[in-house]
Design brief:
- This protein is mainly alpha-helical.
- The protein has one domain.
- The chain contains ten helices and no strands.
- The radius of gyration is 18 Å and the shape is globular.
- The mean pLDDT is 85.
């Protein structure tokens, strides 16, 4: 019975965040237009390789979509006092945080699906595998939303959350094999690449759509994305408990 109440509370917290924050024009545009603009810039340099950019474009879309509000929503609600009111409900702090992470992950998943469907009208993917693609999209969404949640609980002000989110996001774009193949990077930079979740998101999506390059095997990418999701969620809960006393 207690588990049922907790799951129901998580569902309604996610639903509240989705309705209140996510499906708004600024978030949709930030989640889709910015990654597409970056991909277009690289396409103009090499138009024949656009299909190779699609897995990275999907990963970037999930990254920016999942963290567009997730990185600030908890900070924002703590400033308003509405986050503390959620804790008065029959749900644990971990449950509240899970509800918020699922809300962000759902939005990232939906905007990535929109980009994917549009891509299917233009490109013919040689290794399209829906059974592999769905876990890649779901776990990428959870990992990036958990990252946004961790950023949100680590700071006190909304502008700090936005700054910290960009500090994570923009280096990942160029170090995770999205535009520049990891194997061509210098060894020290390559080591950093393998510490970033976008690397495993892009590789798992590439293995689901294109001919695998075997830089990171598919199941390794899936395992690492799941590990990132759990670790970032666990750290978020620990940090938030400490901040709330």
């Amino acid at each position: 019975m207690m588990i049922s109440k907790e799951l129901k509370a998580i569902y309604f917290i996610s639903l509240k965040d989705i309705k209140s924050y996510y499906f708004k024009p600024p978030n949709i545009s930030w989640g889709i237009i910015f990654p597409m603009a970056m991909a277009l810039a690289f396409y103009l340099r090499n138009p024949t390789k656009m299909i190779d950019l699609i897995p990275g474009l999907l990963g970037m879309t999930i990254l920016f979509g999942s963290t567009s509000m997730e990185a600030v929503v908890i900070t924002f609600e703590r400033r308003l006092g509405s986050f503390e009111r959620l804790l008065l409900a029959p749900v644990s702090l971990a449950g509240v945080l899970m509800g918020k992470i699922i809300g962000g992950a759902f939005f990232g998943f939906i905007v990535a699906c929109a980009v994917l469907i549009a891509s299917l009208f233009v490109f013919s993917f040689p290794n399209f595998d829906l059974i592999r693609l769905v876990p890649s999209l779901v776990l990428s969404s959870m990992a990036f939303s958990a990252l946004g949640g961790f950023i949100s609980v680590a700071v006190k002000e909304v502008f700090e959350a936005q700054t910290l989110a960009n500090l994570f996001r923009f280096p990942m774009i160029f170090l995770s094999g999205v535009f520049i193949p990891i194997e061509t990077l210098p060894l020290p930079v390559r080591v950093i690449s393998y510490l970033l979740p976008l690397t495993y998101s892009a590789e798992s999506l590439r293995n689901s759509l294109l001919i695998p390059r075997n830089i990171v095997p598919y199941w390794v990418s899936i395992f690492v994305l799941a590990a990132f999701s759990l670790a970032l969620y666990w750290m978020s809960v620990k940090v938030l408990k400490k901040r709330l006393g």
